[in-house]
Amino acid sequence: MRDEAEDGRSAPKLREQAYDRFTHHLLGKDLKPGQFVSQRELVALTGMPLGAIRELIPRLEAEGLIRTVPQRGMQIAHLDLNLIRDTYQLRLFLERPATRSFVHTASDAALKTLHDRHASILQRAENGELSPALQAEAQATDWGMHDQIIDALGNEIISKTYRVNSIKIRLIRDAAVRINDLVVPVMREHLGIIERMLARDEAGSEEAMAAHIERARLRALNMG
């Protein structure tokens, strides 16, 4: 009985580990959008048992990260105009009201920390320091701010929905632009949002966030 209970507790952990490893390799570009992959290949890539991979697949299908193609197997999410439209529209619907809420809930200290972090990265980038380390810091700071705004709502369903959409956004962005091309414009856009937040300007913060997301969408379409 004890072994069965332990197996029951370990199964969800294996599923979560399998999901985390899959998304890690997906965002690490070990898996490419549109690529076909087998269960055995996912086992080899993630180092997870076949049972965990089989249990993972329905979740990945439900989240739109893979799809099963008859007689061909599993295909990693394919990047197309519909995906860009849908993911950025969802992002806009989630982040606009979340930004307005964050203006009220975030402390002055938290906003100043965000401001100083972005300002430091921007200054170094404008001075010509576009090292891989700075690019990684900028990327983490970029997504960290958006995650922080969403998580401040305290709604687990929204946070989980946002995280899945973020994976797709990152795949789209990585395919459309190079991170070193984004450091300066994204830091400037974020600082514009944060400055309005520090002024406790609800409408201005929301509008600045909406404009930021729209510019990101245009960059993804190679239009901006």
- Average predicted confidence as pLDDT: 91
- Roughly what percent helix? over 70%
Roughly what fraction of the amino acids lie in strands?
A: under 5%
CATH homologous superfamily classification of the largest domain: GntR ligand-binding domain-like
How would you describe the shape?
Answer: globular
Order of helices and strands: HEHHEEHHHHHH
CATH domain class name of the largest domain:
Mainly Alpha
Q: Tell me the domain tally.
A: 2
- Biggest sheet layout: 3 strands, antiparallel
Class inferred from helices and paired strands: mainly alpha
Unreliable parts = 1-8
Task: Tell me the number of helical segments per DSSP (H or I, 4 or more residues long).
Answer: 9
Report on this structure.
There is one protein chain. With 224 residues, the chain is mainly alpha-helical. The chain folds into two domains: 2-76, Winged helix-like DNA-binding domain superfamily/Winged helix DNA-binding domain (Arc Repressor Mutant, subunit A); 81-220, GntR ligand-binding domain-like (Four Helix Bundle (Hemerythrin (Met), subunit A), Up-down Bundle). It has nine helices and three strands, in the order αβααββαααααα. It has helices at residues 2-27, 39-46, 50-62, 81-105, 108-126, 132-151, 156-176, 183-198, 202-220; strands spanning 36-37, 66-69, 73-76. A three-stranded antiparallel beta sheet has the order 1-3-2. Helix 1 crosses helix 3 (50-62). It is globular. 25% of the residues are buried. Mean pLDDT is 91; it is low at 1-8.
